[in-house]
UniProtKB/TrEMBL annotation:
NCBIfam families associated with the record: NAAT family transporter (TIGR00427)
Entry's localization field: Cell membrane
Protein name as catalogued: UPF0056 membrane protein
InterPro entries: Multi_antbiot-R_MarC
GO CC entries: plasma membrane
Pfam families per the UniProt record, alphabetical: MarC (PF01914)
Membrane topology: Multi-pass membrane protein
The UniProt record lists the keyword Disulfide bond: no
TM helices/strands, residue ranges: 45-63, 75-93, 105-128, 135-155, 167-188
Length: 198
């Protein structure tokens, strides 16, 4: 049981990838008032956790009711990530889909797809479907992985001060290029699975 928990925690932490999310998170938070950033990070992480928990408990049934395939979820997430990545690369003021007028992000792009992306949704559904008798273990592993992600994101302001704006901007553009490749890979994987399905 302990090995199951540890394996699930490591897997979920790798899928959530909080360190990879830092450049996007910093870019989004640039338009948020400093005194609100911690609250926004906590709120978006809580939303992502709630969504992933819902997918863990009832994701496969929801997709069946809505007549949606996991492939469509993969392609939709890839398209959203592609839009975000292109804006990061070209350095617009709303680089990650958030206006520069001080408005706060809500759900998109931080909770979804940055934390609770298609890969994370698919992972929790896979855990639940393979060993449904260990649902409480999967919930505990998901909660711990989200808490670690929150701690990493809360350190973003400190990292920005240490590294400086030019370095952060360069990292943001570099991560935009990486995200572009990830998004294209997600779209291609979803299309490949859809075409291969009987």
């Amino acid at each position: 049981m302990q090995n199951d928990f540890l394996s699930a925690f490591i897997l979920l932490l790798l899928v959530l990838d909080p360190f990879g999310a830092l450049p996007v998170f910093i870019g989004v938070m640039r338009s948020v008032a400093p005194e609100r950033r911690r609250l926004v990070a906590l709120r978006e992480t809580a939303i992502a956790f709630g969504l992933l928990l819902a997918f863990l408990l009832a994701g496969r049934g929801f997709l069946q009711v809505m007549r949606l395939s996991p492939q469509s979820l993969e392609v939709a997430g890839g398209v959203i990530l592609l839009i975000i990545a292109l804006r990061m690369v070209f350095g617009h003021g709303d680089a990650v889909g958030v206006a520069s007028d001080g408005s706060e992000p809500l759900i998109v792009p931080l909770a979804v797809p940055l934390l609770a992306g298609p890969s994370a949704m698919a992972t929790v559904m896979l855990l639940a479907s393979r060993q449904p008798q260990h649902t409480l273990v999967w919930i505990a592993a998901l909660l711990l992985a989200m808490l670690v992600s929150l701690v990493v994101l809360l350190a973003a302001d400190r990292l920005r001060r240490v590294l400086g704006e030019p370095v952060i901007a360069a990292i943001e553009r570099l991560m935009g290029l990486v995200l572009t490749a990830v998004a294209i890979e997600m779209i291609l994987a979803g299309m490949k699975q859809y075409l291969a399905a009987p």
